[in-house]
Design brief:
about 450 residues, 16 helices
């Protein structure tokens, strides 16, 4: 059972994550001028659906006495599943029908839950922020879906031309970026052991500010003209992904700065050079640059985590060592475990791993996540191509009018007529003001004349 202090702690962070998922993410993906209604609406309905389906899927894989345990932690884990689905959705944003979005979410949650189970319970990966099992998986699941759907080159070019924003939509997306920037430390720290959460918050905050500086700096070098709002949005948040696997580990501030700056730089360079190359060579459509905000930084996080795990020592971590690396706890029945259990009664038996063995498992977890994502994403893409699931025609993609009742836009003639009417009303008001002013002047003159006669 949770005590009141633990419930208060998790409920506060749960609120932060809810803001990230349902508000910030919705604003971030409402970046297309013609797809704002759909982006925010789809993020809401997918979030509501995935909370229920993910709770069941994770529960089926972790039944306790034949029952599914429901707690605040369960809801937070479900929110992580929503994040995975929305990341994937961003790859194909605007190109699917509502039915296809729901099918995508249904299929992905199954494989995502399986990936989490393998990474956490079999491989015992150290990944507090989910950079390996969430961000990397979701990014390459979406890219596999997009690749299998195999749109011709002309269609990719036309869709990219439609996927432009306005000043309003880009500002909404930047507000979403800022909200994610503010609340990301909560996301990376919530599932970390309690005594390591403070460290996770600090490391994430440091990495985010570094990735923002890196995004602006590298963008200034490679663009040589003006900043792109889309590139800056991706680069500024990349540090939160790249630090996720090591957020709760004992890395120095300079290491968090280096990780964050590198992630921001990688995101900008990938968006600027790799994305056009993949579109041209593979006709691979990545509508929101997911590979450069989640894919590449997720892989960077996995590589860095392997190095950090390998270099970790008990002397540096002290009493928090086995909290950070639970697989390093000696196995049940050994003398070492008995000695540790006498000191730490709440300690659970582990696998007795060395630190470089744990580093190897970090790399294995990354390979498993990418492989499972590509295979399952390809299967999902093949299913989505079936005509039974109401695929959109090219001329109906990235268009709110296809599924939303929109406020009617006035024609040029109607707007001109309204302007004429407003101009006439303005002239009438001016004339009336002159009449009132003239009548006031006459009244004042009559009052003066009356005063003279009385005198």
């Amino acid at each position: 059972m949770f005590n009141n202090n633990v419930i208060s702690l998790y409920f506060a962070v749960y609120g932060d994550i809810q803001v990230m998922i349902f508000l910030a993410f919705g604003l971030l993906i409402a970046c297309f001028k013609r797809y704002g209604y759909s982006a925010m609406g789809i993020s809401l309905v997918l979030g509501a659906f995935v909370v229920q389906w993910a709770t069941l899927m994770h529960g089926f894989l972790d039944l306790q006495d034949g029952h599914i345990k429901l707690s605040v932690i369960t809801l937070i884990s479900a929110d992580f599943s929503i994040a995975a689905v929305l990341i994937t959705t961003c790859v194909v944003l605007g190109t699917l029908s509502p039915l296809q979005y729901l099918l995508l979410a249904f299929v992905e949650v199954i494989f995502y839950a399986l990936n989490v189970c393998v990474c956490q319970r079999v491989l015992h990966v150290v990944d507090a922020g989910g950079s390996i099992y969430l961000h990397t998986f979701a990014a390459y699941f979406g890219l596999a879906v997009s690749l299998v759907m195999n749109r011709p080159k002309a269609s990719v070019r036309e869709l990219k031309n439609l996927a432009h924003g306005s000043k309003v939509s880009e500002l909404l997306a930047m507000i979403g970026t800022l909200l994610l920037f503010i609340y990301w430390p909560s996301f990376n720290s919530v599932l970390a052991p309690a005594d390591l959460q403070h460290r996770a918050i600090i490391n994430t905050a440091v990495a985010l500010v570094a990735s923002t500086v890196g995004a602006f700096s590298v963008s200034a070098v490679v663009s040589k003209e003006k900043f792109s709002m889309t590139i800056i949005q991706n680069g500024a948040l990349a540090g939160g992904v790249a630090i996720g696997s090591t957020a709760d580990l004992m890395i120095q501030p300079y290491a968090a700065l280096m990780i964050g700056f590198s992630a921001g730089a990688v995101a900008v360079i990938g968006f600027k050079y790799v994305n056009p190359l993949l579109e041209r060579k593979l006709h691979l459509l990545d509508m929101c640059g997911v590979q450069y905000l989640h894919g590449f930084p997720g892989i960077l996080a996995g590589l860095v985590s392997a190095l950090v795990c390998g270099l970790a020592s008990k002397s540096a971590y002290g009493s928090s060592f086995y909290g950070a690396f639970p697989a390093a706890v000696p196995m049940q029945g050994t003398e070492d475990f008995a000695q540790l259990h006498a000191i730490y009664p709440s300690l659970e038996p582990g696998d007795g791993r060395s630190q470089w063995t744990q580093a190897g498992f970090q790399l294995i977890a990354m390979a498993v996540s990418v492989t499972l994502a590509v295979v399952s994403g390809s299967i999902c893409g093949l299913v989505l191509k079936c005509k039974a699931f109401d695929p959109l025609q090219l001329d109906l993609m990235i268009d709110d009018a296809e599924i939303w009742s929109l406020p009617r836009n006035m024609s040029d003639d109607e707007e001109s007529d309204i302007r004429d009417v407003l101009e006439k009303l303005g002239k009438i008001l001016i004339n009336r003001r002159e009449v009132v002013r003239h009548s006031t002047s006459i009244k004042e003159q009559l009052k003066g004349l009356e005063a003279c006669l009385k005198a």
